[in-house]
Design brief:
- The structure holds 2 protein chains of 2 kinds.
- Chain A is α+β, with helices and mostly antiparallel strands.
- Chain A has 2 domains: 1-31; 33-166, no CATH class.
- Chain A is built from 8 helices and 8 strands.
- In chain A, a hairpin with a 2-residue loop joins strand 3 (113-114) and strand 4.
- Chain B is of the alpha+beta class.
- Chain B is built from 14 helices and 23 strands.
- Chain B has helices spanning 2-19, 25-36, 63-75, 130-136, 154-160, 171-194, 197-224, 251-255, 259-271, 295-305, 319-331, 344-358, 412-421, 467-472; strands spanning 42-48, 54-60, 83-84, 87-95, 98-105, 108-114, 120-126, 148-150, 233-239, 242-247, 281-282, 288-293, 335-341, 365-366, 369-377, 380-387, 390-397, 402-409, 435-439, 442-446, 450-452, 455-457, 460-463.
- A 7-stranded antiparallel β-sheet of chain B has the order 1-2-7-6-5-4-3, sandwiched between helices. Chain B has a 7-stranded antiparallel β-sheet with strand order 12-13-18-17-16-15-14, sandwiched between helices.
- In chain B, helix 6 runs antiparallel to helix 7 (197-224), helix 6 packs across helix 9 and helix 10 (295-305) packs across helix 13.
- The longest helix of chain B has 28 residues, at 197-224.
- The chains are: A alpha+beta, B alpha+beta.
- Chains A and B meet through helix 1, helix 3, helix 4, strand 1 and helix 5 of A and helix 1, strand 4, strand 5, strand 8 and helix 5 of B.
- Strand 8 (171-173) of chain A pairs antiparallel with strand 8 of chain B, so a sheet runs across the interface.
């Protein structure tokens, strides 16, 4: 009896817990998937925008769908599949450029693997660099003109092959 | 047994507790109350959308209030938070000193628009989507800044195709830019090989500047041109060995396009096989206005105006019509175009441009066109050119500093025929049912007789240009009908 009651309690606990993704709030949802090292790093980087010189944008796929579901057909929305969110940083002056560059140095060095992400593309000419890193469910795109503009885009919930399929011509979302 | 029961209860309560971890409703209430304690002039509104939905809108009325709202938001670390009271950050745009953030969770929404300079708005809502809440904000624009633009690097694209740079621009335009900039870069690179270190550094900077200029131009073109999704230009042949191109985009934007890029755009237009040209003169310069009227616009106007009366499509733009619109506009002819001087500078430019057309007498031939009418009075000049392909009317009034040109392409009757041929939601023959008067982009639909120059019309398309009245004194042109039939 003792064992049965304990199992029942455990079942209820696990059962209710497993319903969270459906019933609970988004903040509970995030507990389900632990953030990767690179996600945490980019989240931390987002806070440095207070220092200025860097424009920043963040959009979750929930918001994207909310904003554009009326404009896009179902098939177009499927593109976003498991996409979770995107962040973008763009330097707007030299100070911001240097700051963002320093923060992204581990990736700009072109190492084969950084924070669990693998180097997929590296194009370098003169001082300009275009770099793509990828993990199983995230993409990091860096575009450095070697002077003032450094653009960093981070997409979570999209693998490299999906990015190549859907992102070749670029995403461009306005809100 | 008691222990087992306690364990069960505790586990159950813990599990249920996880469910209740959602929105902190008391926290939301407290957060709202905190606004009432702020210093300065606070504007506060409560809006009930329906029984279950409401929104509280707070905005700063002065500097002091702006600062105290900011302090409150900072207290909760809201400028950098990714969740708040159970709501998740769904969107955030931060540019220079302004920032917009939207949180949403379990029916609750929080939107903050800090525009800096004493202007901040905070909206807390229940029962509304974040999009609806954002629409309530005075500072929110759907097409405002905050674009997220994520692109594969250009070189990545090269791997996949022959196109060189950004995929969104037509390749003709890209090639025009390439031909313009690349030779200069190549030349500098050659020079750099044998240059002193000092000169090499200077060359490097020059190359960098050229590349930046190139990039800037691509960005500008992408913004102005590529978004149109196709060649939205109108090419008019037969005037002074040249062709007039009327871009279907804002004139200022077109004027901002560099000449070498224009070449590319025009190559692109020619490349479509629809418009063929040799020289490329652009309609519309500083101090002038130009515009295009297309039969479909006329029909659309008619449908819109009569939508209620005749129970046609309420909007006047059914999907079918939009599809027709697109095809017809890109199809090109027939068209009615005008170009008119807005300022003295524009007048001077136009008169100079059109002098060759203004000076000819009746019967003179010019580029497959024939002068079929000419009137001169008090220094004013009017000349009409005719060809099976179209009609060109030019008018000059030095006293008014007014010069204008009207072009009807596709033959005069073609315009009216096209209007009659258009079918919108089963409605055909619009110009057979009413009079349509077009004047500098204004379209007037007249149901009933229309009288012009002593002639009464039951239906048809008419162009009002204003210069007939000036030339004939009383608005009557004897024996002259400009009805397009």
């Amino acid at each position: 009896m003792k064992r049965k009651i304990f199992l029942l309690a455990l079942f209820l606990f696990v059962g209710l817990g497993s319903m969270q993704p459906v019933m609970a709030t988004p903040s509970c949802n995030r507990q389900v998937k632990e953030k990767s090292e690179v996600e945490l790093y980019m989240q931390k980087l987002a806070k440095t925008r207070a220092a200025g010189g860097v424009d920043y944008a963040y959009i979750s796929v929930a918001m994207f769908k909310q904003m554009f579901s009326e404009m896009l057909a179902g098939d177009a929305l499927k593109v976003f599949g498991s996409l979770r969110y995107m962040r973008q940083f763009m330097s707007t002056n030299e100070v911001g450029y240097n700051r963002l560059k320093n923060a992204m140095l581990p990736f700009l060095n072109g190492d084969e693997e950084v924070m669990g992400m693998k180097l997929m593309v590296l194009n370098s000419e003169d001082n300009e660099q275009s770099i793509v890193y990828s993990s199983s469910d995230a993409i990091l795109v860096l575009s450095d003109d070697g002077g003032e503009e450094l653009r960093v885009a981070f997409i979570v919930g999209m693998g490299y092959s999906e990015f190549m399929e859907n992102g070749m011509d670029g995403f461009n979302f306005g809100f | 047994m008691k222990n087992i029961y306690t364990t069960f209860v505790l586990l159950f309560v813990f599990a249920a507790g996880l469910q209740a971890q959602g929105i902190d409703k008391r926290g939301v209430e407290t957060f709202i109350k905190e606004f009432s304690s702020l210093q300065g002039t606070l504007h506060s509104r409560e809006r009930h959308v329906d029984d279950k939905s409401w929104a509280r809108i707070f905005s700063s009325g002065d500097d002091e209030c702006y600062r105290s709202i900011k302090a409150l938001l900072n207290k909760h670390d809201l400028y950098f938070a990714e969740d708040f009271l159970g709501m998740e950050l769904l969107v955030c745009v931060s540019e220079e000193d302004s920032q917009q953030m939207g949180f949403w969770g379990d029916g609750y929404a929080l939107f903050i628009a800090d525009e800096h300079m004493s202007d901040i708005q905070v909206i807390i809502a229940k029962g509304l989507s974040l999009k609806e809440v954002m629409m309530m904000s005075s500072g929110f624009e759907m097409s405002s800044s905050g674009d997220i633009s994520i692109e594969a690097p250009a070189e990545l694209h090269v791997v996949q195709s022959d196109e060189t740079v950004r995929p969104l621009l037509p390749k003709e335009v890209i090639m025009a830019l390439f031909n313009h900039y690349q030779p200069r870069i190549d030349m500098l690179k050659d020079e750099k090989r044998t240059a002193t270190s000092e000169r090499a550094a200077a060359i490097e900077n020059e190359i960098k500047a050229i590349k930046k200029q190139w990039d800037d131009e691509i960005e500008l073109l992408r913004k102005n041109i590529a978004g149109l999704g196709g060649p939205s230009f109108v090419y008019i042949p037969c005037i002074d060995e040249s062709f007039l191109v009327a871009p279907m985009l804002d004139e200022q934007e077109w004027m901002s396009v560099q000449p070498h890029a224009r070449e590319g755009i025009l190559d692109w237009i020619n490349g479509t096989g629809f418009y063929k040209g040799r020289d490329k003169n652009i309609i519309g310069k500083n101090g002038q206005r130009s515009g295009v009227e297309h039969p479909m616009f006329v029909v659309a106007e008619y449908v819109k105006r009569h939508s209620d009366k005749k129970s046609w499509q309420a909007s006047g733009y059914s999907p079918t019509m939009e599809a027709i619109f697109k095809n017809e506009i890109q199809g090109g002819t027939p068209l009615y175009l005008y170009r008119v001087s807005d300022t003295e500078e524009g007048y001077n430019i136009m008169v100079k441009d059109l002098e060759q057309l203004l000076c000819r007498n009746i019967g003179a031939k010019y580029n497959n066109m024939k002068v079929t009418n000419r009137i001169e009075k008090d220094g004013m000049r009017f000349v009409q050119y005719y060809s099976p392909a179209g009609v060109v009317l030019v008018f000059d009034s030095p006293a008014d500093k007014l010069c204008r040109m009207d072009v009807i392409i596709g033959g005069a009757g073609a315009f009216e025929n096209a209007v009659n041929d258009c079918t919108v939601d089963g409605i055909t023959g619009v110009a057979q049912k009413c009079n349509i008067v077009i004047n500098l982009g204004n379209i007037e639909i007249i149901e009933g007789p229309y009288e012009k120059n002593g002639v009464s019309f039951d239906c048809g398309v008419h162009f009002e240009t204003g210069y007939w009245e000036k030339l004939t004194g009383n608005g009557k042109v004897k024996g002259e009908s400009r009805r397009l039939r």
